[in-house]
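Forum: Protein Structure Q&A
Topic: Joint prediction for protein chains with partners

I've read a bunch of threads here and the consensus seems to be that you should model interacting components together rather than docking separate models afterwards. I'd like to see that in practice. Below is the full input, 1823 residues plus whatever partners are listed. Could one of the regulars post the assembled result?
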Amino acid sequence: MTGPPILSLRALRRDYVQPADLIARIGRMLKRAGPPPVVQAVAEVDLDIAEGEVVGIVGESGCGKSTLGRMLSGILPPTGGEILYKGQPVAGLDASSRHRYALDVQMIFQDPFSSLNPRMRVVDIIGEAPVVHGLVPRARKEAYVAGLMRKVGLDPAYRFRYSHQFSGGQRQRIGVARALALNPTVIVCDEAVAALDVSIQAQVLNLFMRLRKELGLTYFFISHNLGVVSHISDRVAIMYLGRIVEIADTDTIFSRAHHPYTQALLAELPSLRTDRRSFVPIRGELPSPLDPPSGCPFHPRCPHVMPRCKTQRPELRIRPGGEQRLLPEGQAGEQPAHMSACHLP
Amino acid sequence: MQTINDLRSTQTDASVAQPDVAPGSSRESADLLLDIQGLRTGFHTREGVVKAVDGVSLQLRHGEILGLVGESGSGKSITGFSLMRLVDPPGRIEADRMHFDGRDLLSMSPEECRHMRGRDMAMIFQDPMMTLNPTLRVDTQMIEALQAHERISSKAARQRCVEVLEKVGIPSPAERLLVYPHHLSGGMRQRIAIAIALLNAPRLIIADEPTTALDVTIQGQILYEVQKLCRETGTALIWITHDLAVVSGLADRLAVMYAGRIVETGLTEDIIARAQHPYTHGLIASIPSIETRGAELFQIPGSTPSLLNLPPGCPFQARCYRADGACVEDPPMEDVAPGHAARCWHRGVQA
Amino acid sequence: MLSTIIRRLLQTLVVVLVMSALVFAGLYVIGDPVLMLASPEATAAEREAIRQALGLNLPLWHQYAIFLGKAIHLDFGHSFLNGEPAMQLILERMPATLELATLAMFISVVVGVPLGVYAGLKPRSASARGIMTGSLLGFSLPNFWVGLMFIMLFAVMLGWLPAGGRGPVESFGPIQLSVFNWEGFKSLLLPACTIATSKCALIIRVTRAATRECLPQDYIKFARAKGVREKRILGVHLLKNIMIPIVTIGGLEYGQVFAFAVVTETIFSWPGMGKLLIDSIITLDRPVVVAYLMLTVVFLATLNLVVDVAYTILDPRVRLEAA
Amino acid sequence: MPPDTDDLPLPAHASLWRVFVAQFRSSKLAMCGLVVLLIFLGLAIFAPWIAPQNPFDLASLDIFDSKLPPGSANMDGSMTYWLGTDGQSRDVLSAILYGLRISLFVGFVSVSSAFLIGTAVGLTGAYFGRRVDAVLMRIVDIQLSFPSILVALVLLAMLGKGVDKVIYALIAVQWAYFARAARGAAIVERNREYVEAARSMALPWHRILWRHVFPNCVPPLMVIATIDLAHAIALEATLSFLGVGVPVTEPSLGMLISNGFEFLLSGSYWITFFPGLALAIVVIAINLVGDHLRDILNPRNEI
Amino acid sequence: RDLTIGLRTEPSSMDPQFHSLTPNTQLSETLFDPLVRTDKNAKPVACLAESWTVDGNVWTFKLRKDAKFSDGTPLTADDVLFTYDRVPKVPNSPSSYALYLSTVDKVEAVDPHTVRITTKGPSPVLLANLSLVPIMSKKAASGPAPEGKTTTELNRGDGLVGSGPYKFVSWKRGAEIVFARNEHYWGEKPDWDKIIYRPITNSAARVAALLAGDVDVIEDPPTDDLARLKSDANLHIQETPSVRVIYLALNQGDEPPKGMSGTDGKNPLQDKRVREALSLAIDRDAIVKRIMDGVGLPAGNLLPYPAFGTSKEHAKAEPSDVEKAKKLLADAGYAKGFTLSLGSPDGRYTNDKRIAQAVAAMWARIGIKANVETMAPSVFFKKRNTYEFSTYLAGWSASSGEMINPLKSLVVTKDPEAGLGTTNWSKYSNPDMDKLVLEASQTLDDDKRSELLQKASGLVMDDYGILPLQFELSVWAMKKDLRYEGRADQMTLAQDITLAK
Ligand SMILES: Nc1ncnc2c1ncn2[C@@H]1O[C@H](COP(=O)(O)OP(=O)(O)OP(=O)(O)O)[C@@H](O)[C@H]1O
Ligand SMILES: Nc1ncnc2c1ncn2[C@@H]1O[C@H](COP(=O)(O)OP(=O)(O)OP(=O)(O)O)[C@@H](O)[C@H]1O
Ligand SMILES: [Mg+2]
Ligand SMILES: [Mg+2]
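Posted by a regular:
Agreed with the consensus. Here's the joint model:
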């Protein structure tokens, strides 16, 4: 089935006007400078997400992963570009399709504590939205919630508890159940396992995989943990300073990464080993998004920097030999290309 | 009921403590920087005593790096705080022996303790966003750490701060001194916290999950710097984490904690390659990676039990795939190999 | 910053306008100033003459328009009661209220913060509970009651302090203050303590809450881990963080005390603005009431701004933003 | 059953009330407060049946009985004024009981109304931000710059005197505090992730505001409310002191205190002392209960 | 020695012609001298005018030759002319002194020490009126403004030069007013070097200030504290009957007034029997004893006997008689009583709201339910003047000390233009009495006038057109080594306060 992707992002952009601090403001006033600087949290992102696929997004803190996820799930409006939902631009949807879209794309948040209302009982946290949206009659709410809780591996007997009475892993399951309650097709996981320790993380990751199999879910999986992403994703996009710098299926990324940033990330990947190792970090830090470097945004930290990188920003191009090809048997859709934004051959 | 439990666990601890505290019997105590035996830290709450640390024994040589691993709530941080004598009431520290650098930590006066903290033994906390006081400038917070222990002019102190900041890889350190913490990124702050820990050139640094809140690239940098520092200065380090993958490349030795006890300890390569305790197996196997892709991860079912009123016996029995009737008895710590001990009736590498 | 100030200024202007209109309408509703002023034997013609002289014969909106017209030139009218420029009457009395409010807040902070910190440090101790209960009393006892009790105790029975009045003052240009004069200070003490009683109670509660919130924070523990002395932890790390809520509440309350120290000033015959306000309200001396409240609005707005700026100093994370 | 849940006792949802009661009883101090408060509430509610005299009925007052010290008998010896009489020859004990009724009523009604109004305004301002917020907060500023006596006087002149008018005046004076506090709390809550989660589930804004943001703003507001209750009663007393409070023939506790005040220097201490004592006890009881309630209503503290 | 006086009300101005109000007048009477003064019983006595003669409408005053202003300049007729000329020119006066010169047609200087005043008609009250208009110094008070020195300037003490026993030193608004002895004073030197007035509006605070020794004399201590103050060996209390009567006005309009119910659309207050019943129900003795703590006199008329124009007949208050009152009510057809409202200011007169409550309690015994409505004076007066109460309690101070003043203001049929019945808000109208009052106001012969006034007041009292309750006593409390005789007009004149012999 090579049907249209369920979600497509076209030149999606999100700017923030940084609230300037006192000194900066006075300075600007004195210098009679123009408007306050703009942060391009997400800049010109193009991406297709096929139904049933798990897309992993990796990048450093502040590179715009969350912003992208929030735009996808409709919490934040994009500044520019558009999101296509089943081929239709979201901005142009009529009320009912829009509603459908809002319910179809759900989000799971990083912090399993702050993302659950501390003053609501589990039954309300999970059951509120479906009742409000008329998916479930009020009378059936408890039964519905109980079903969902069972599905995510929680004992329905605990439905009248508050979220703080659960352990981190259980809390994250509540978050999952809440997202599932609206029968979504796409789930945006924003660092959904980052706050959990390894043993709980394994439980939740297994749950994600199981649900995917059972419900045919599509995941947009944001994480800075390459290990997690490699475990769960079909395809991985690497973000740097608001842009996707490399995207390919997981195996390609982990075996034949092209972009120097991706390579550096992979080198960082902590792994079990029995020998002492020497850590060699990436030079420098993520540049300020307020004042991004000219040319390739990665050039100040890149080991292979060339003069050209400082002036010309590389476009995201399909890698030679990384053209589209059909996926292995059993999986639907077309395998997208391996793309990278680097001047290196 | 509760008192009986109490008694029992202390008894077993005491009886167990003698034979197995020093797994590496070759080690001489003079050589040891840190020698802890039977450390018990309990929180006396209205509901009962939370035994957060329940008979932990640790030895550390000068310049040695120890990885303290375990899941959330297993008592890793409290162990660290107990060493620093930083447990707030209602917490109470008891130990059979608690020697640091030849001195008895238990009999120190509060003023001696204060001097010991920060000067001989320093700590780095998990959350870089919270460890620096948001209302004070970086220099204030650094200089006070120096002036708390020695009479030093502000100018000299500042000079020293700049040096240390440079050492932890902070560019243009003199300027960074003048800003407030919120102007800095998480990684920067954590490096400043590390710099503060290093200011007085302590002999032991306890790093309590210092990279958990940071992302990969920053984590890499911090690991790099810590490793470099330990090599250069010969400082001993206790690195607390729940992720074996992080410490496996760093630590000389590992100690795996569960429910307030150390369940397995040994050289890093021994533990990674030949883990004996089922809990350690779980920790190792639940790490996701490219190899595990598509497959179900091994998972330890359930979560850490409440340390309040733990049922008798092996605390891991309810989650253990090897548990059987024997587990209602608390297993002792026993050597499996020189320098490698585990606390389980069903020791053995995973099939 | 500048734009914030300008914006605030504009908003304050609007508030002042609305406020003055409300006061006009309000006093109109309450009563007729002529009835309060004129001799009860006055004839209708005489009353009419007064009305005309004071401009009260015009329709209310017209009176308001005239008032606005003059106010633009900073002329806020003359008191009905004594013919003096209203603003001048108020400004004359401002220093008295200012020093009263300032001393009162000073006392409540100096007393309240240490007590609050103590109660926050040892929440379960008997003395902490005592402090908290005492602070409750400070809240619940009406101000006038406390004031008269103080008078009874310290002025009448013990004779240590004067029962009321302002006492001698020191002149600083046009401003006269009594704090810098021992006798004057003594007369200031009782009214200031009366106000401080209830404000102190508030400060204690706020401080305690802030302390309890601040203590378990990592940075306190980290400071301990650095080996910093306990004194410095409390005096620098804790204090600087709890000052933020204290400054907020303190600022708000300071404004309230400054603007409406009515009851205390009455009881202690303190020649401040509050007493002027209440007297003017009672005699329906509209120009004074209006001018007073306009001044108060401006003062409170300024105070808010100052508090905001204080925020940015105390908590560097907060930046001034246009509200 | 998953073993990790062993340590979590299962509160059947029918017994939530029992849990609540059990928790409340965990603090002796709060229990004392509650008992005292209940006693006083009972006294206030049943005052007409308990009080030896109806102090609001002018016909029952005999001016020759005025200012009698505690324990005096009345003219014909038919009743004893256990706490003395006031200047209007009201039995102080009865007056306290009736006055308590008025003061508590005024306090509770005005504070709860001010709470609702102020919270609604504050939450709306915080949620919508910008313009709405600026406008609402300016209104709050205006309110805060208005002296309560002026408000009370205007209302008195427009609506006449009465307990209800005093309540209006108190609401008018107090709501702004709640608005400020609610806004402050809501601005913090608004940025929490659970609000985002609610938005991602396309819940309507008013629902997010009331069901999600509001309950989390309650604790700081509760503190203000319990304190404000005391404040309202004291403020009512002050208004009475300034002559714009409740009708003189139906004195509240505050008015009794302020009336009695005139007699303090003359030695008739009981006229102000006993009402003052009653007020202090009630206020402390309310606050003890309030403080504890706030603690246990916080779900984090649920066992 | 200095004298500190705790004032009940701060004066609104130092200008002796700005605001006619007791707190103002009593200070100007200390700084300035009028042509004639009134003594403590409100009788005119010589002051700057040594003597005077009356000839119909023409009054001739001989000025004292030794009178000097505090700046040393002698006082002449020019100053008198200047003073009287200035009165109507004072702008924005909230209560003009022109009232006191309303009967004056013209003022002339015959020679530097003789002043001739021509009145518009016979004016028996002229002397009393002139006593309230003190003479200013022309030299000092002249200025560019039409009125000479403006009120604002005078408030600063600029031009505030009088011939009284004291001269102005300073005024800190709200805090204190300081006078010093006038070395040029023509009369006997008063006892005090300096006088400090301190406004202390709260009565309890005033007492406390006296007890604490902060002040030497206070005006108007609260009645409740008198017992204690009297028993204090360090203090001396002066009680003096005043010309202020506290009365109840009954709305006698044709329509049932506001607040009345249970009367079938009629106004029972029009019925004399009902009014009498209301009066009989009130136990005036009890009010004076229990509420005023004896600081008052039960009133049977609008002025206490033997003031000018009072008769023996109504010298004493009627004793209360509840049975008779009930019977009268029954006769009038209101055996079951009815409901009415009783308005009262709160804090305008001594114990006003408490008296109102006591009255209501007494009325309750004859079955009349009175809803007491007390309110801040500003609100009260507005409501009273729109007839919002069925009955109200108020006070009247007959500053001139004779009956014509209360009659003319309180009970004569309302005629705002003519200044009659200005405070008659009861709709009471008795043409016979109106005539008598009018006649009296134009009669110069004291005996005849007194007779007319006695008759007129007798008419009102017999008619129960207004119910006087009590006469206030003016009270001063002072340290025990001080004495003040007190004045009927309730003024506190510092120069009259003396050291105890
Ligand atoms: N509300 C906002 N106002 C201004 N700037 C913002 C806002 N939210 C995010 N940004 C900026 O946008 C950029 C991207 O933020 P985003 O939260 O998407 O990063 P992220 O990749 O999710 O980081 P992390 O891993 O820390 O969650 C950052 O530079 C951030 O400072
Ligand atoms: N103040 C306290 N009162 C009661 N119990 C406490 C207190 N502090 C910690 N504990 C308990 O002690 C146990 C150990 O806590 P600790 O913080 O050492 O865990 P940890 O291993 O560091 O976990 P994490 O990985 O989440 O940091 C926990 O079960 C916790 O509930
Ligand atoms: Mg993010
Ligand atoms: Mg920890």
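Chain E is about 30% helix and 25% strand.
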